[in-house]
């Protein structure tokens, strides 16, 4: 039987034992988009819908070996970079991505949670800013990450736009400032800036506490669309639509904030 031709995407991110975020969410998202998913695990977390109880970081050499194994054998049409957590790992992955010829890179700068909890130290933030951002075809900071990168408070739509301008100056080709943590009517509103074009992308917010994995899923969906050859702005629009639909069909698992329904067409009423 003739093999089925398929685009391939690589996620470089942490593992979520509860299955709601990280590489588990990324691989489900790739599969939904009919993209073959590959992975390089950066950290092993012990977590569930209630929270994270332990994080074990893998050595940089282990992570780069995983990337080499994939890249030496397969064409990688797009890359999603998620949790890197420490300076040495950020620098090792950045060196490798700059050296190896892969598809466009979507960077989800996992620095601050949507609730505002800091996840990495100052040295890692600076490494991310100096080494990883210039490699990003699309950077997807949430409100708190954008605040940290731009060095300003973000309360209004114009603040989001100014933050996008400041972050773009750090080297990413496109900056998508996400509004999931914004107040009031701005929840669900993202700002796109590519150095020339400023776009406001809005969807109706979904009222659910089960939002675990939305940031991972959005960046993975953008990467999947880029792997399929979709132009960047359209890739972001389609990814937002996918996440919004998945939010409408969260999974009834666990006793905390549950995951979104990545395969929502299979569980629709």
Automatic annotation (TrEMBL):
Q: What is its EC number?
A: 2.7.1.49
Question: GO: which molecular function terms?
Answer: ATP binding; hydroxymethylpyrimidine kinase activity; phosphomethylpyrimidine kinase activity
Pfam families cross-referenced by the UniProt entry = Phos_pyr_kin (PF08543)
Q: In which pathway does it act?
A: Cofactor biosynthesis; thiamine diphosphate biosynthesis
Q: Which UniProt keywords apply?
A: ATP-binding, Kinase, Nucleotide-binding, Transferase
Residues forming the Pyridoxamine kinase/Phosphomethylpyrimidine kinase domain are 16-260
List the record's Gene Ontology CC terms alphabetically: cytosol
One GO biological process term? thiamine biosynthetic process
- Is the keyword Transferase in the record? yes
Q: What is this protein called?
A: hydroxymethylpyrimidine kinase
